[in-house]
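pasting for the record
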Amino acid sequence: MSSKVTADHLARSAVVYVRQSTMSQVLGNTESKRRQYALADQARAVGFASVAVIDEDLGRSGSGVAERPGFQRLVTAVCAGEVGAVFCIEASRLARNGRDWHHLVDLCALAATLVIDPDGVYDPRLVNDRLLLGLKGTMSEYELSLLRQRGIEARDGKARRGALQFTLPPGYCWSEDGRIELEPDERVADAIRMVFAKYRELGSARQLFLWARSAGITLPVVQRNVAVCRITWRAPAYHTVVQILHNPIYAGAYAFARRGNRIRLENGRARKTSGHDRPMAEWGALIRDNHEGYISWAEFEENLRMFGENAHMQKRASRKAARGGRALLTGLVRCGRCRMMRVFYGVQSGHAHRYQCRGDDAHVGSGLCIGIGGVRVDQAVTALMLEAVSGHAVEAALLAAEKASATDDALAQALERDLEAARYEASLAARRYDLVDPAKRHVARELEARWNAALEKVSALERRIAAARAAAASRPQVDRDALLRLAEDLPAAWNAPTADNRIRQRLTHILVREVIIDLDDAMHEAVLIVHWMGGRHTEARIARVRCKPRQAEPTRAPAEVVRRLALEWPDREIAVKLNRMRCRTAAGANWTSVSVREVRERLGIPAFTAQGTAPPTVGVQEVARQFGICIPSVLRLIREGTLPAEQAMPYAPWKIPTTALASEPVIAGLRRVKERRPRNLQGYHRDAAMRLPGL
């Protein structure tokens, strides 16, 4: 035993620190792990009665960018003075960066703790031992940097040649000579082709995911266990669909290092996170036309463009995809003065939509930019669009019919592939059942249950295929002559009850790149510049709606308003009334409950108190909520005299007795209001907003 190990050290406990950088080392490099655990026996041989093994950091890097709870536990024990010696197989096990290493050495010197490895015993309080420990830590840090640099350069050089092999996505495999080839399994390849074809049809990864879920289609997924990879079939997940559509390997390109790591400071320490997408210019390797692809590179770039349009929460100045709603030009309208215009729908059901630019909304009080009602804009743009494409209506209709038929064929092919795989599994289960020894009843029962489950799966798929074929057969056939007649009245086809708003929006996105709107205040017109996909531009002008001038409210002094309303309404309602009358305080500010209270107290008017003897009343909003009608309908009943109500002065809140709500005249008036409604109110509002004029 070394003379540096004293009785004071032996009176405390020894700590054996065990660490390996990755989980693959933990599973594969078992000899190193065995040697580190054997240090506990060495500590007992030295004379330590209490030996603790810290192995929480197995599979964690010591470079300083990963959280190491075991190392934190070791540092805490050393600071508490509970550790007499720290055993490690080498300095690199304790730390791979100078900060952690020198910090631990300093703490060991303060707590009189030894550092012991197979080469010797080191006392950090001694100058020579501290020098040796410092050199060991520096060499360990340099060794890690050197090994990492060599490994990354070798890996990137091999990747730039296209020779580096990695886990390929479903649909591809490595050949014997190190080339990427299409998956020989037709079921996997056809499923990948179906995903890309359906995405081009639907134009949205989410819609593709929902369609696959509703159709009950399974998609291939690569399941990796260390060095073993195999294909498993699972129900579609959204991230699975996105990974297939985003991967450039399907476009015939060899791509490597598409994602990178980021290091951030957190509580004074570096923390590394992985899986962050890099721009294409920063990829480690990109070799186009390296192998046979499921799609072309142009189609891949088009898919990326569609992804950008579908990301409505990013890049607010770029064009957006169609997402439904009454507005036809959703995601296409740009303000002629600053940025993209948003679509605002009325709060009440059926109100027309409006295109509005928020302006510099990052600064409070900067105000809105420009806005215009959306119905007239949609009508003008659609008239231009229908005029431009009316000659190609038949071709578009025939193409839509072909796509519908192709969709049915794709679904049938996917189900046929699943049925073929299920029949193979059933035949395999039958052979296994036939080969089992009848005496082993417990094995025979399990194999019989698996055989029955496989047969049930085959029957379920056969029923689904039959239902899909029946649905395809019931689809009406395309009549070319009827389409020729329909081309002469294309606006009627656009306004058909079966036309969907999302389809109209997608058709608009195919033809129109963007629509720039500006206002001509001198002519009181809106100027529309339509940028077509072909590069041409068309200018159109539409007249703006001339609103009636607001009737001037009779000028009333704030003191007069407070005197009239203080006995009937609280200060908050009086402040709302003054603001509606566009009255201002002496300082030119809006009225608040505090400013109204100050005026009331100066006039000597007592605060409002609810009287229990007064008949109960309700407001206009409460009546509209109880009757299920809108507020303008309630005000109409009041103007007609059907609904009794009191108002202290114009713009003051209405008081409606609750006893009058159940009277016969009020019920009859409510019946008349509801009879004026169309039966399908929401459909009426949608059609009224989207119905466009003929040519």
